[in-house]
Amino acid sequence: MTTIGIYEKALPKNMSWKERLLLAKQLGFDFIEMSIDETDERLTRVDWTSAERKEVREAIAETGVKILSICLSGHRRFPFGSEDPDKRATALNLMEKAIHLASDIGIRTIQLAGYDVYYETKTLTSREYFIENLKKAVAMAASKEIVLSIEIMDDPFINSISKYLKIKEQIRSPYLQVYPDLGNLSAWAENDVGYELEIGIDQISAIHLKDTLAVTDQFPGKFKEVPFGSGCVDFLGCLKTLKRLEYAGPFLIEMWSENSDKPEKEIQQAKAFLFPFLKEAGYSVN
Q1: What's the whole-model pTM score?
Q2: I want to staple 231 with a disulfide (CB 3.0 to 4.6 A). Which of 3, 170, 174, 211 is the partner?
Q3: Separation of alpha carbons 239 and 234, rounded Å
Protein backbone atom coordinates (compact mmCIF):
# COMPACT_ATOMS: atom_id res chain seq x y z
CA MET A 1 0.00 0.00 0.00
CA THR A 2 1.31 3.44 -0.95
CA THR A 3 2.06 5.71 2.02
CA ILE A 4 0.12 8.99 1.83
CA GLY A 5 0.64 11.92 4.20
CA ILE A 6 -0.92 15.31 4.79
CA TYR A 7 0.79 18.61 5.52
CA GLU A 8 0.14 19.97 8.99
CA LYS A 9 -1.03 23.31 7.54
CA ALA A 10 -3.89 21.54 5.78
CA LEU A 11 -5.42 20.61 9.15
CA PRO A 12 -7.13 22.95 11.65
CA LYS A 13 -4.52 25.00 13.44
CA ASN A 14 -5.61 25.11 17.07
CA MET A 15 -5.43 21.43 17.96
CA SER A 16 -3.31 19.28 20.21
CA TRP A 17 -0.97 16.87 18.44
CA LYS A 18 -3.12 13.94 19.50
CA GLU A 19 -6.21 15.60 18.03
CA ARG A 20 -4.33 16.43 14.83
CA LEU A 21 -3.05 12.86 14.44
CA LEU A 22 -6.50 11.41 15.12
CA LEU A 23 -8.03 13.68 12.48
CA ALA A 24 -5.37 12.64 9.97
CA LYS A 25 -6.22 9.01 10.73
CA GLN A 26 -9.93 9.70 10.32
CA LEU A 27 -9.23 11.27 6.94
CA GLY A 28 -7.29 8.19 5.84
CA PHE A 29 -3.68 9.40 6.04
CA ASP A 30 -0.64 7.45 7.21
CA PHE A 31 1.45 10.37 8.47
CA ILE A 32 1.70 14.12 8.96
CA GLU A 33 4.46 16.46 7.85
CA MET A 34 5.19 18.94 10.65
CA SER A 35 5.77 22.62 9.86
CA ILE A 36 8.56 24.65 11.43
CA ASP A 37 8.18 27.85 9.47
CA GLU A 38 9.57 31.35 9.97
CA THR A 39 6.92 32.43 12.50
CA ASP A 40 7.96 32.78 16.14
CA GLU A 41 5.15 30.40 17.09
CA ARG A 42 6.41 27.46 15.08
CA LEU A 43 10.11 28.19 15.47
CA THR A 44 9.74 27.60 19.22
CA ARG A 45 9.05 23.93 18.51
CA VAL A 46 12.78 23.24 18.27
CA ASP A 47 12.95 24.22 21.96
CA TRP A 48 10.24 21.85 23.16
CA THR A 49 10.95 20.39 26.57
CA SER A 50 11.49 16.70 27.21
CA ALA A 51 7.92 16.50 28.52
CA GLU A 52 6.52 18.13 25.38
CA ARG A 53 8.45 15.75 23.15
CA LYS A 54 7.25 12.79 25.21
CA GLU A 55 3.66 13.96 24.78
CA VAL A 56 4.04 13.94 21.00
CA ARG A 57 5.69 10.49 21.04
CA GLU A 58 2.83 9.14 23.14
CA ALA A 59 0.26 10.66 20.77
CA ILE A 60 1.99 8.94 17.85
CA ALA A 61 1.98 5.61 19.72
CA GLU A 62 -1.69 5.93 20.70
CA THR A 63 -2.99 6.94 17.27
CA GLY A 64 -0.71 4.88 15.05
CA VAL A 65 -0.19 7.92 12.80
CA LYS A 66 3.41 9.04 12.51
CA ILE A 67 5.14 12.34 11.93
CA LEU A 68 7.63 11.27 9.29
CA SER A 69 8.99 14.62 8.15
CA ILE A 70 9.51 18.26 9.08
CA CYS A 71 9.06 21.08 6.59
CA LEU A 72 11.77 23.39 7.91
CA SER A 73 10.98 26.63 6.09
CA GLY A 74 12.30 28.73 8.98
CA HIS A 75 15.46 29.17 6.92
CA ARG A 76 13.63 31.70 4.76
CA ARG A 77 14.06 34.03 7.72
CA PHE A 78 17.49 32.75 8.73
CA PRO A 79 19.13 31.50 5.50
CA PHE A 80 22.36 29.55 5.19
CA GLY A 81 23.55 31.98 2.52
CA SER A 82 22.93 35.25 4.37
CA GLU A 83 25.59 37.95 4.26
CA ASP A 84 24.87 38.51 7.96
CA PRO A 85 27.09 36.19 10.04
CA ASP A 86 24.62 36.27 12.93
CA LYS A 87 21.83 35.01 10.66
CA ARG A 88 24.09 32.24 9.34
CA ALA A 89 24.92 31.21 12.90
CA THR A 90 21.21 31.23 13.79
CA ALA A 91 20.48 29.13 10.71
CA LEU A 92 22.94 26.44 11.81
CA ASN A 93 21.66 26.54 15.37
CA LEU A 94 18.09 26.16 14.10
CA MET A 95 19.12 23.19 12.01
CA GLU A 96 20.97 21.51 14.87
CA LYS A 97 17.95 21.89 17.15
CA ALA A 98 15.60 20.59 14.45
CA ILE A 99 17.80 17.53 13.98
CA HIS A 100 17.70 16.78 17.70
CA LEU A 101 13.92 17.27 17.72
CA ALA A 102 13.53 14.90 14.77
CA SER A 103 15.70 12.30 16.48
CA ASP A 104 13.72 12.56 19.72
CA ILE A 105 10.32 12.20 18.04
CA GLY A 106 11.18 9.59 15.42
CA ILE A 107 11.08 11.86 12.38
CA ARG A 108 13.18 10.53 9.50
CA THR A 109 13.38 13.44 7.06
CA ILE A 110 13.89 17.18 7.40
CA GLN A 111 12.80 19.02 4.28
CA LEU A 112 15.14 21.94 3.67
CA ALA A 113 14.00 24.83 1.47
CA GLY A 114 16.20 25.20 -1.58
CA TYR A 115 17.05 28.88 -1.07
CA ASP A 116 20.51 30.34 -0.60
CA VAL A 117 18.74 33.52 0.55
CA TYR A 118 15.10 34.57 0.33
CA TYR A 119 14.81 38.20 1.39
CA GLU A 120 18.35 39.20 0.36
CA THR A 121 20.05 39.65 -3.00
CA LYS A 122 21.48 36.44 -4.45
CA THR A 123 25.20 36.47 -5.17
CA LEU A 124 27.99 34.02 -5.81
CA THR A 125 28.96 34.56 -2.18
CA SER A 126 25.47 33.64 -0.95
CA ARG A 127 25.74 30.39 -2.93
CA GLU A 128 29.13 29.65 -1.34
CA TYR A 129 27.81 30.34 2.16
CA PHE A 130 24.83 28.07 1.42
CA ILE A 131 27.05 25.15 0.36
CA GLU A 132 29.46 25.72 3.25
CA ASN A 133 26.68 25.63 5.84
CA LEU A 134 24.75 22.84 4.14
CA LYS A 135 27.88 20.67 4.46
CA LYS A 136 27.91 21.34 8.20
CA ALA A 137 24.18 20.60 8.45
CA VAL A 138 24.50 17.30 6.57
CA ALA A 139 27.29 16.20 8.90
CA MET A 140 25.09 17.00 11.92
CA ALA A 141 22.15 15.11 10.39
CA ALA A 142 24.30 12.09 9.54
CA SER A 143 25.39 11.79 13.18
CA LYS A 144 21.71 11.32 14.11
CA GLU A 145 20.80 9.24 11.03
CA ILE A 146 18.40 11.94 9.83
CA VAL A 147 18.08 12.66 6.10
CA LEU A 148 18.10 16.27 4.88
CA SER A 149 16.04 16.61 1.70
CA ILE A 150 16.15 19.76 -0.41
CA GLU A 151 12.77 20.74 -1.80
CA ILE A 152 12.50 21.86 -5.42
CA MET A 153 11.35 25.43 -4.94
CA ASP A 154 9.42 28.44 -6.21
CA ASP A 155 12.79 30.17 -6.53
CA PRO A 156 15.41 30.00 -9.32
CA PHE A 157 18.19 28.92 -6.94
CA ILE A 158 17.02 25.29 -6.85
CA ASN A 159 13.93 25.01 -9.05
CA SER A 160 14.89 21.73 -10.68
CA ILE A 161 16.41 18.39 -9.80
CA SER A 162 19.23 19.26 -12.19
CA LYS A 163 20.20 22.21 -9.98
CA TYR A 164 19.93 20.07 -6.86
CA LEU A 165 22.34 17.57 -8.43
CA LYS A 166 24.89 20.34 -8.93
CA ILE A 167 24.76 20.96 -5.17
CA LYS A 168 24.91 17.21 -4.48
CA GLU A 169 28.17 17.03 -6.43
CA GLN A 170 29.69 19.21 -3.68
CA ILE A 171 28.26 17.14 -0.80
CA ARG A 172 28.37 13.43 -1.56
CA SER A 173 26.46 12.08 1.41
CA PRO A 174 23.56 9.62 1.55
CA TYR A 175 22.10 11.94 4.19
CA LEU A 176 21.47 14.63 1.55
CA GLN A 177 18.57 13.86 -0.78
CA VAL A 178 15.93 15.70 -2.83
CA TYR A 179 12.22 16.23 -2.13
CA PRO A 180 10.54 17.12 -5.43
CA ASP A 181 7.37 19.17 -5.32
CA LEU A 182 5.54 18.22 -8.52
CA GLY A 183 3.88 21.64 -8.59
CA ASN A 184 7.10 23.60 -8.23
CA LEU A 185 8.90 21.34 -10.69
CA SER A 186 6.15 21.77 -13.29
CA ALA A 187 5.76 25.54 -12.96
CA TRP A 188 9.12 26.37 -14.56
CA ALA A 189 8.95 26.22 -18.37
CA GLU A 190 12.62 25.26 -18.68
CA ASN A 191 12.03 21.99 -16.80
CA ASP A 192 11.44 18.78 -18.72
CA VAL A 193 9.56 17.19 -15.83
CA GLY A 194 9.86 13.59 -16.97
CA TYR A 195 13.59 13.93 -17.55
CA GLU A 196 14.05 15.66 -14.19
CA LEU A 197 12.38 12.77 -12.37
CA GLU A 198 14.45 10.26 -14.34
CA ILE A 199 17.83 11.81 -13.53
CA GLY A 200 16.95 12.22 -9.86
CA ILE A 201 15.08 9.03 -9.06
CA ASP A 202 17.87 7.53 -6.95
CA GLN A 203 17.98 10.71 -4.84
CA ILE A 204 14.26 11.17 -4.09
CA SER A 205 13.16 10.72 -0.47
CA ALA A 206 9.52 11.85 -0.80
CA ILE A 207 7.15 13.62 -3.21
CA HIS A 208 4.92 16.66 -2.66
CA LEU A 209 1.59 16.63 -4.50
CA LYS A 210 0.48 20.20 -5.23
CA ASP A 211 -0.84 22.17 -8.18
CA THR A 212 0.67 25.45 -9.42
CA LEU A 213 0.23 28.10 -12.08
CA ALA A 214 3.16 28.25 -14.48
CA VAL A 215 5.79 30.97 -14.59
CA THR A 216 5.75 32.98 -17.83
CA ASP A 217 7.44 36.14 -19.09
CA GLN A 218 4.36 38.08 -18.02
CA PHE A 219 3.43 36.15 -14.85
CA PRO A 220 5.55 35.15 -11.82
CA GLY A 221 3.64 31.93 -11.31
CA LYS A 222 1.53 30.91 -8.33
CA PHE A 223 2.96 28.29 -6.03
CA LYS A 224 0.44 28.06 -3.17
CA GLU A 225 -3.29 27.56 -2.78
CA VAL A 226 -3.97 26.63 -6.40
CA PRO A 227 -6.99 24.28 -6.46
CA PHE A 228 -6.10 20.81 -7.71
CA GLY A 229 -6.93 20.51 -11.38
CA SER A 230 -6.78 24.23 -12.15
CA GLY A 231 -3.01 24.44 -12.53
CA CYS A 232 -0.27 23.24 -14.84
CA VAL A 233 0.69 19.88 -13.31
CA ASP A 234 0.21 16.74 -15.40
CA PHE A 235 -0.39 14.52 -12.38
CA LEU A 236 -1.03 11.33 -14.34
CA GLY A 237 2.11 11.81 -16.41
CA CYS A 238 4.24 12.52 -13.34
CA LEU A 239 2.87 9.58 -11.40
CA LYS A 240 3.19 7.14 -14.32
CA THR A 241 6.79 8.26 -14.74
CA LEU A 242 7.50 7.70 -11.05
CA LYS A 243 5.86 4.28 -11.17
CA ARG A 244 7.93 3.27 -14.21
CA LEU A 245 11.02 4.38 -12.31
CA GLU A 246 9.88 2.14 -9.42
CA TYR A 247 9.47 4.98 -6.94
CA ALA A 248 7.91 3.43 -3.84
CA GLY A 249 8.36 6.21 -1.28
CA PRO A 250 5.77 8.41 0.40
CA PHE A 251 3.53 11.02 -1.20
CA LEU A 252 2.55 14.14 0.75
CA ILE A 253 -0.51 16.24 -0.12
CA GLU A 254 0.51 19.85 0.44
CA MET A 255 -2.34 22.26 1.25
CA TRP A 256 -2.84 25.40 3.33
CA SER A 257 -6.40 24.98 4.60
CA GLU A 258 -5.65 25.29 8.33
CA ASN A 259 -7.69 28.51 8.62
CA SER A 260 -10.47 27.37 6.30
CA ASP A 261 -14.06 27.02 7.51
CA LYS A 262 -14.17 23.49 6.11
CA PRO A 263 -10.63 22.08 5.92
CA GLU A 264 -11.79 18.47 6.09
CA LYS A 265 -14.03 18.99 3.05
CA GLU A 266 -11.19 20.59 1.09
CA ILE A 267 -8.87 17.70 1.97
CA GLN A 268 -11.43 15.13 0.88
CA GLN A 269 -11.85 17.00 -2.41
CA ALA A 270 -8.08 16.88 -2.92
CA LYS A 271 -8.06 13.13 -2.28
CA ALA A 272 -10.97 12.64 -4.69
CA PHE A 273 -8.95 14.43 -7.37
CA LEU A 274 -5.55 12.83 -6.75
CA PHE A 275 -6.33 9.23 -5.84
CA PRO A 276 -7.73 8.20 -9.25
CA PHE A 277 -4.44 9.36 -10.82
CA LEU A 278 -2.42 7.41 -8.26
CA LYS A 279 -4.48 4.29 -8.95
CA GLU A 280 -4.30 4.69 -12.73
CA ALA A 281 -0.53 5.06 -12.44
CA GLY A 282 -0.42 1.74 -10.57
CA TYR A 283 -0.14 2.87 -6.95
CA SER A 284 -2.27 1.07 -4.37
CA VAL A 285 -4.25 3.52 -2.20
CA ASN A 286 -7.37 3.27 -0.05
Answers
A1: 0.96
A2: 211
A3: 9
